[in-house]
Write the structure tokens for this entry.
Amino acid sequence: MKEKCIEAFKRVFNKSGDICCFAPGRVNLIGEHTDYNGGYVLPCAVTQGVVCVASKRNDRLFRLYSLNLERRGITEISLDSIKKTRSWADYPAGVINTFLRFGYKLDCGADILYYGNVPRGAGLSSSAAMETATAVILRVMFSLPIPDNLLAIIGQFAENHFVGVNCGIMDQFAVAMGKKDYAVLLNSKTLEYKYINIPTDKTDIIIVNSLVRRGLANSKYNERRRECEKAFAMLSAKTGASSLCDVTVEQFERYKDELHPKLLCRARHVIYENDRVLKAAQALKSNDIENFGILMNESHKSLKNDYEVSCAQLDFLADAAQKFPGVFGSRMTGAGFGGCTVNLVSKEKSDAFADYIKKEYFAAFKTEPHVYKTLPGDGAKVLFKF
Ligand code: ADP
Ligand code: MG
């Protein structure tokens, strides 16, 4: 990918690049829809990601190009008036804009070329990869003293306030802070985090892409956020909790019947899911992959029945996987309504599992899913300077 990017940069911009960076995608192992409720999540960065090559300009233009979307050509953004183009370029433009809003000085523009192998719009956070890659480029190019966790905050700010997607902090945090062989246990309220080793000698992480487009995802996502706010208003009045995930399982069981039935289900997912993340982290620490898998399966069930963000294809993939000997756990991952499942599979069974799940899914839906074997990888970084 690096070589292809360097070549393409020369072709597109008629000069060579100054710097080459990488930002990974991420897969969330457990803790879905908890990050905007002040709870825990347990994602890891993956080995797939976006590579970018950049070079400073001597004017105030940013010229952005994606090798994945060659037909779109170059998008030009002026540092003096950064406007939304309602295209892919809003992700990097949003980050440039956020640097300025946060008071960082960018004294000139740059040419930047991107090339990624994270499927776009599949719940593996290709968007956070684009944002964080851009943030790393700007940090190095302009010698700005920005710690990695602030890169994540900048990326989330760009996505919330420029692109206009109301996401939590998980994606950008995992992408900026990921570490080879480790999952990141993140407290989304305090941003405290711990790395927990994933036994990659015994297990593979297999991602199965249903190829279902997440059509309703944005409107349903916002609807879920509102439902959580309503449930929180009632439960915090009873318990004094500072966020929905601050409500304990015991408190929830005591007061749940005072909630509207739909809100009860939404809150039950969030509060129990948060509890599952902590149990899963504990299981991972003690190398208890069986128990970790059981918690993943429970997470899927809760996302399907209580949070209602799954779909027939994801349910099929999770069900079929959970029946396969050698699969420890399987669940939908990402916001839902399409996208991928994440599967923890014993190493010697993972190739057989990939064949099996492709055949089963094809028989049911006449589409072959995309299957990616991945590893917990490093967060965003500079690959080299020319
Ligand atoms: P996800 O983050 O789950 O992949 P999103 O809808 O949040 O899905 O982000 C996907 C969008 O990010 C794409 O539609 C595109 O605009 C942008 N994007 C991601 N990767 C690339 C890339 N390599 N080149 C150009 N745009 C990209
Ligand atoms: Mg995204």
